[in-house]
Specification:
Blueprint (H helix, E strand, L loop, with lengths): L8 E5 L6 H6 L3 H12 L4 E5 L17 E4 L7 H11 L1 H5 L3 E4 L5 H11 L2 E6 L3 H7 L4 H17 L2 E4 L2 H11 L6 E3 L21 E5 L8 H8 L5 E5 L5 H10 L5 E5 L6 H7 L2 E4 L8 H8 L4 E4 L15 E3 L3 H12 L2 H18 L2 H14 L1
Parallel strand pairs: 1-2, 1-4, 2-3, 4-5, 5-6, 6-7, 8-9, 8-11, 9-10, 11-12, 12-13
């Protein structure tokens, strides 16, 4: 990497309302900060602009020495802080070289800062915000806000980072972007943490799902797919569909589905290595981190043949693709559970895929190259 980068400073603008504490409570703090700890090794300084309060400082020991947390000292609230943060933290922002957003929600804070301080801006987006709201049939006012913010953020940005080929094609076509401005940098995995375990024994026919319990995850169909199988489905996570799913399990007296709630990211390798299969059966995805982490553990994975997932899984090579119906899922799960050789081969290839294309170090190198080019 160019030695000039060692004099540069990056500011990450967290998603509006998000904080290190919220990441911690959601069990994903170590996952989210991993790449910034890696980037900090090659930069002079990294600032994390958070929506938390002074309690954010309790997480400083988990960060590299040259990462500094900027937070809402006066607890003025998410909306007000999102507009005033560029003024509150103007000294640090003025001295930085690069601004980067973590998601589109809250990107206006970085846009304001760019206009004020004339720094290079990278707008990052996983699954498109506007498209997500439309898919979920959210309120019209939310859709209107997203339809106003997205084009402004893209217009002002010097580079746009997306996590999948589908998202890149979508934003280029929808907003008429120069293709050179949109770059794919997928989500990353710490392959030193998420790896196969030689000491953790597999629990026969244990199937695991990790993620947000929401409509697009298609978990009603997944439960229908496994309820008559000689297998155990473990659901890790929480979300707005949790009560619906628990009611279904209780009312139908399904005894092979359990809910584990949120588990810290650092404990997930153990849960994955205890399992024989990981499943992700969404009706749409961006670049799902839990899928990548399961593959890094050498776990055979089953995913639906939808955008985002099919960009990662090569059918019967490093994973198994199925349709979104309960019948197709059941057939896929049965096929994989009954075929030891297939499971072993897919798990081995899954690990190889992640090490070669999704490791923290390789993707941090891509981020640094992007910054250097700017």
């Amino acid at each position: 990497m160019d030695d000039n980068m060692r004099a540069k400073t990056l500011v990450l603008f967290l998603t509006a309302g998000m904080s290190l504490d919220a990441w911690h409570k959601g069990g994903m703090l170590t996952r989210e900060i991993a790449i910034y700890n890696e980037l900090a090794r090659h930069l002079n300084k990294v600032y994390l602009l958070s929506y938390g309060d002074e309690t954010e400082l309790q997480y400083k020991e988990l960060l590299a020495d040259n990462i500094e947390i900027m937070f809402d000292k006066n607890s003025i609230g998410t909306l007000m802080y999102s507009f005033l943060a560029p003024f509150i933290h103007r000294r640090a922002l003025k001295g930085a070289d690069f601004f980067k957003t973590n998601q589109m929600v809250g990107s206006w804070t970085a846009v304001i800062a760019k206009i004020m301080f004339k720094k290079k801006l990278i707008v990052r987006q996983g699954f498109p915000w506007l498209l997500t709201l439309q898919e979920k049939k959210e309120r019209k006012v939310k859709i209107l806000i997203a339809s106003l913010i997205e084009p402004i953020a893209y217009k002002v940005a010097d580079k746009i980072v997306v996590t999948s080929r589908h998202t890149r094609e979508y934003v280029i076509e929808k907003y008429g972007l120069n293709p050179e401005r949109a770059v794919i940098i997928p989500n990353y995995v710490d392959t030193d943490v998420f790896k196969p375990s030689e000491t953790t024994g597999k629990e026969k026919n244990r199937i695991i799902f990790i993620g947000r319990l929401d409509m697009e995850k298609n978990l009603v169909n997944l439960i229908d797919a496994v309820k008559t199988l000689d297998a155990e489905l473990v659901l890790i996570g929480e979300g707005p569909y949790e009560d619906i799913l628990k009611t279904k399990v209780e009312s139908e007296r399904i005894d092979n589905v359990s809910f584990q709630g949120v588990i810290p990211n650092e404990r997930l390798p153990l849960e994955l290595n205890r399992s024989e299969i990981f499943v992700i059966v969404s009706i749409y995805e961006g670049n799902p981190k839990t899928l990548l982490e399961a593959m890094a553990c050498g776990l055979p994975v089953i995913g639906t043949d939808v955008r985002g997932i099919k960009e990662v899984i090569n059918h019967k090579k490093n994973g198994y693709l199925c349709d979104t119906s309960a019948e197709s899922m059941k057939e896929a799960i049965t096929d994989v559970l009954e075929n030891d050789e297939l499971r072993e081969r897919m798990g081995r290839c899954a690990r190889k895929t992640i090490v070669e294309h999704y490791s923290v170090k390789s993707l941090a190198a891509k981020e640094l190259s992007l910054l250097a080019a700017l």
